[in-house]
Amino acid sequence: EQRLEDRIPELEQLERVGLFTRKEIRAVLRKASALEYKIQRRALRKEDFINYIQYEVNLLELIKKRRARIGYSFKKDEIEYSILHRVHSLFNRATGKWKDDIQLWLSHVAFCKQWNAKHQLSKVFSTMLAIHSNKPALWIMAAKWEMETRLSSESARHLFLRALRFHPECPKLYQEYFRMELMHAEKQRKEKKEFEQAKMDLGEFNYSEEILNGEMARIVYRDASQKIKGVEFQLAVLSIAKLFDFTQDLQKEILESLQARYADDPLTWDFMARRELELGSLPATEQTTKQKKVSEMAQREERCCAVFDEAVRAVPTEDMWKCYITFCLERYNRKTNSAELKQKRLERTLSVFSKAHESSLLSEALYKQWLQLLLDSSFSEKAVEVAEAATRHFSQSMEIWQMRLQVLIQLKREDVTQCFEEAIKHVKSKGTLPLWTLWVEWSEGTNSKEDTEALYQRSLHATTPAESVTMKEMYLDWTYRNCGYKKVKRLFTSLCENRPFSLDFFRKMIQIEKEQESCKILHLREYYERALREFGSTNTDLWLDYIKEELSHPQGKPENCGSIHWRAMKMLQGDLVEDFVSKYTLLQTGHL
Fold first, then answer.
1. Backbone conformation region of residue 358, classed left if phi is above 0, alpha if psi is from -120 to 50, else beta
2. Which residue in 110, 241, 270, 562 could disulfide with 323, CB within 3.0 to 4.6 Å?
3. For residue 41, what is the DSSP state?
């Protein structure tokens, strides 16, 4: 009641200045009363607080629009500030009760930023970080706000140092702290330059040359590089340093440290090679012809490749070759109008693939990319050779065999069957399903019916029980398309002798029966009964389809529906019974 009474002055002001009518004021008061009572319960709910806050925020937005419409900008202390104070106290109560809810804290932060409540936001950050000191991202957010909004480098530095006490080995914190020190140095350099241009006397205030040259950032980097190992961190710091034009010495130090400490790491070599693309580029002028640009780009790429060649000699590992090949593929995929440059890039990429293959340091994924590139570039003979070599290296990889077979099928080679036999021999029985599906699909379009049928029969024994389910469906479908109804019915009966089955296997047979001119209900009942034996306890739709069939088929017996319903109720498990009852009711009323 006290809080509702505290609203009265602001509501009176809203009415007096003409922003709201008497009727609207009453509506606001009614809604506020309802929301106040909800957050005064003994058992508090987070949603009530969120709804109340959302209502107040919407009210603020509405007042803002009304002010703009009538051009009235006075009495903000009595109206807006009163509402803002109430929202802050609601947020404080909510975050005090549900301290672990990060989203609630972040909503309060966003609200403070939106309404420029700097003093309040400082308090929110300080309370939040006391509770959630284990989350580096929150420390970074707070320091960034201090640096960019409050323009206080000292506060930001203080926050980063506190954060590093909690997270002494967090790379992201060090990166952002390093960036902040460089931003601080840049800000001071600009200030000094402006003072010098204005010829103002700085008096006692003097700028330290060391800070202006980024010495603080250098100290942060040295401290971090002792605690954090790995090339990724060094490269991340270097990329930040590159954004500032006064960090040449610092960049040089980071590079030297990178080369000295991580000379055997592929990422170091990759970075050093890619640097050649940026180095030595001529300033673009209008007189520079296209031919010159192309030749300059070709030279820079050659320099990169020279570094990569040195790298694969110094560090002959799979990862190093991967970096080299990735670079070549990136350059090849770049758009260029020069056919000569495109051809040179293609030749270089294929050459690097060959060298990596000769060193036996090509990964499975890269063999796939090589094959794809050869096929796209119409080197079909080479593609066959590469596919064969890949299956020698990765003889147990189903995907590599699959790619080799697809290449042979695409080129319509004669030795496809022989290759399939070889693949099945090398790959373990578990996981061979894609090979069998590819084989039977190829056989359907190439071999005789007898050969394909023999292949289907063989696949049922060769695959694992779980995988044979898919082969049964395919076999049933192929038999119906090629051998007719009588044959498929015999096949269905024989396949039913060996579990497991899939629901689609039975549905396929039911569909086939329905497509016949003399569709017999006896056969449909047999198929439904077989399916229900397997899936009756877990599938409500199957029971409903059976009931529909009895109701709609010319030879069906609607009187059987009762007994089917009774059986379903007995057989279905758990919540499925309820689901079945509701669907059956809809069916009876004609809504299903």
1. alpha
2. 270
3. S
